[in-house]
Amino acid sequence: MKTTDKFLYGGDYNPEQWLDQPEVLKQDLELMQKSKINTVTLDTFSWASIEPREGEYHFEWLDKIFDDIYQIGGHVILATPSGGRPQWMSQKYPEVNQVDEYGRRHKHGFRQNHCYSSPVYRQKTRQINTILAKRYGKHPALLMWHVSNEFGGQCFCDLCQDNWRQWLQKKYHTLDNLNQAWYLKVWSGLYSDWSQVLPPNPLGETKVHGMDLDWKRFVTDMTMDFYENEAQPLREITPNIPITTNFMAEGLDKGDYYPITGLDYSRFAKKVDIVSWDSYPAWHNDYETLADTAMKSAYTHDCFYSLKHQPFLIMESTPSCINSQQYNKAKKPGMNILSSLQQIAHGSDSTLYFQIRQAQGNSEKFHGGVIGHDSSSQNRVYQEVAQYGQKLNSIAEIKGAVKHPKVGIFYDWESNWAFNRGGAFGRPTRLGIQTLQKHYSVFWEQDIACEIINGDDDFSKYDLIVAPILYMVKDKTVDKLTKFVEAGGILISSYFTGMVDEYDRVVLGGFPTKLRTLFGINTKEIDTLYPKQHGHIEFNQKFYETKDYNQVIEATTAKVLAEYRDDFYQGTPAVVSNNLGSGKTYYLATRLGDDFLKEFYQPIIDKLHLTNDFITKPIYEVSCQTREKNGVKYHFLMNFSEEEQEVLTNRESINVEDGSIVGKRIILGKYGTLVVKEK
What we know:
Blueprint: E1 8-12, H1 22-34, E2 39-42, H2 47-50, H3 60-71, E3 75-79, H4 87-92, H5 119-136, E4 142-146, H6 158-172, H7 175-181, H8 209-237, E5 243-244, E6 246-247, E7 249-250, E8 258-259, H9 265-268, E9 276-278, H10 290-306, E10 313-316, H11 335-345, E11 350-353, H12 380-394, E12 407-410, H13 413-421, H14 432-445, E13 450-453, E14 464-466, H15 475-486, E15 490-494, H16 513-519, E16 521-528, E17 535-539, E18 542-555, E19 559-564, E20 573-580, E21 583-588, E22 590-592, H17 594-607, E23 622-629, E24 632-639, E25 645-648, E26 653-655, E27 661-662, E28 665-668, E29 673-678
Parallel strand pairs: 1-2, 1-11, 2-3, 3-4, 4-5, 6-9, 9-10, 12-13, 12-14, 14-15, 15-21
Antiparallel strand pairs: 7-8, 16-18, 17-18, 17-19, 18-22, 19-20, 20-21, 23-24, 24-29, 25-28, 26-27, 26-29
Helix pairs in contact: 5-8, 8-13, 10-14
């Protein structure tokens, strides 16, 4: 696979917007060189510029940009343009446009608004991709393929409905099996003919949980199949050029941040050569500390690293502000370097921006860019971009370095779908991913590396697996977790674990037998608390407040570590441990706060020797992340606070940027960073 020994630095470049102003394109090249930019992503939304009318191609401008980038020593990530099809296609072939859940055919507009089932769109995308691969596949500037852009969306047209039924027939074979899997005797929903099977939609069926779960699986499969259709000619014509597509994060509108939940990235990641994603945390918001934002950003970086357990790429970020939220705050001086270095610290081999030059018009004209509307190299944003470019060059030896976490945070996309879709309990307080992040934050605060793992991963690499709210029971996963514990591992789980099967049907007979053995308990019921209601437990001779959910359990072989102090479950177990083989499990029957989690995890951290041995005393606001390469450990020290911080280390180290010796007392200024190494 083609690669380079430097971190990729640059981003999305849209020269087609400036073809009538050649002096602008000339200036762009000069400013790219000056800021140490070495990589641009081209053609993401250029289809109409390449093929303005069906069969009429104009590549001269793209040829020149390729050559110009190569002349300045740069690389090109070439995107396939399917994320934004040209107007003529929507007009001539209306079937390429999506149909929404109400059965309305969309007109041309926005992005990713196409039907993944459309034979016409599949043929047209393969055609343009084949032309691009043949034309640019051997160009020395081409470094990587970027298939489409930010995959998402779903279509309800007749073609997609036919594919939906075929997908279900392949999975279930008979209607009897489907009726049983979806438990359609409820509300007289039984199918008697395959033609009756429609997607979930607001004009029809919305309450069949198994249907909703399978639809989400189907949408992921259709999206991956469309991606594969695009990627096939690229692989055939340019087998040595790696292929990626940019994954995304979501949740900012609710004050959250995590990988999007609409597509199962744990499966999609198997299709790409390199994981890449678009990173847009809400820095400087008014609802949490900067360090809290950094923790959520770190969790998301770690999730994308964990998909392939190897360095990933940041395909998009911003040097200043974003464009898409209700409030789009600019990054303060120093924040671009700090947030970008966090990407590298958690395993990225790139910092790429959207966009190189700010657009003059249309919907993203105020989204941050390397080159602003003033075209000046003297403005603050550009100056910081150039400073960071120099820093990346100075630490280039780290590129390709890996991580060796001993803590795995377990996350299953399908289980999360089912958990959020289920009825009863507290709808606003489900907070499955947010609960994972609460556990993750304990380790992030102590600079202990984590991976976000799933059921396909090798559990033997970890000493500790944290798996709260493992709502959906999958026998394969339970068997692997049991072997992990029996071999000496420690496993943590919680309320809402083991409640439904892979069809989102409730497991009958209480807690599944294998989980009873694993945790030494049986489960009884769950009490949902209103936001102002709280219970209490006693743990280690201290009282802690419970919230949202109190599960009633009984201990069989487990040892009771804490009991409820309130309500009808007073005196029953709330926290238990269970020995199994050479390992141990813990079960938290209730939702508890940060104060409890810190107290609970500390002896486990001490027993497993998980503490970061480079830092003398961890500070929540200062993150220390480590990557390793050729026997050398590289530590990234990052101050996510508004104040100067003193960092104490157990050993002296070497400043990667200038080779100087760094003592054991380090002062980091506001948003300060330092990259050091030790053998």
